[in-house]
Design goal:
Blueprint (H helix, E strand, L loop, with lengths): L2 H37 L1 H13 L17 H35 L3 H29 L11 H18 L13
Pfam family, one: DUF2165
Organism: Streptomyces decoyicus
Keywords: Membrane, Transmembrane, Transmembrane helix
Length: about 180
């Protein structure tokens, strides 16, 4: 083994470790969020209800037609959020295991694929769901009491960083084409 191969191998191992840790961190976080929403159902149900009802916004008549005030619709949206969080956390937990096993075996292509699916699920939930739909469509940014934009932004940032690391060329094993 030449020096080139030794130095080339170290970043790949380091990047695979970073991808494992970042994927695992997002998986743990999302698992705890889903667990909290299931075991303390009412706390975040109230959050979702207030955001969708737009009852703590500026109540601009030109926007209030967007409000969803039906508790059944609000609860259905909340259950969909919990189901999505749970599914994404399961995908990311599986991806973390695949990274751990694949890094030792020198093949992380499947880990990369599964991580990508899970991380994109997180980006859709917090980026499209909370930032775009909650923040803009339902004017969550106007609420002092029920505003989850800061937390959603942190989640988008963490998942986005993890996705970038997962797709860095050195995170793949050498025999996978040096992607």
């Amino acid at each position: 083994m030449t020096d080139k191969h030794r130095t080339d191998r170290a970043p790949r191992t380091g990047l695979a470790l970073a991808a494992t840790v970042l994927t695992g961190t997002v998986a743990l976080y999302l698992s705890l969020v889903a667990f909290g929403n299931i075991t303390d159902f009412d706390t975040n149900r109230q959050f979702v209800r207030h955001v969708l009802a737009m009852d703590t916004t500026f109540k601009d008549p030109e926007l209030m037609w967007r409000a969803l005030t039906s508790h059944a619709v609000q609860d259905a949206a909340y259950l969909a959020i919990i189901a999505w969080e749970t599914a994404a956390s399961v995908v990311l937990l599986a991806a973390t295991a695949l990274w751990a096993v694949g890094a030792r075996r020198g093949s992380v292509a499947r880990a990369r694929q599964v991580s990508t699916v899970g991380l994109l699920m997180v980006l859709l939930l917090f980026g499209a769901g909370f930032l775009a739909i909650g923040g803009e469509w339902f004017a969550m940014w106007q609420s002092k009491d029920w505003n989850g934009l800061e937390a959603a932004t942190r989640n988008v940032a963490l998942a986005g960083i993890a996705l970038v690391v997962v797709h860095l060329p050195g995170a793949a094993a050498r025999h996978e084409g040096g992607e």
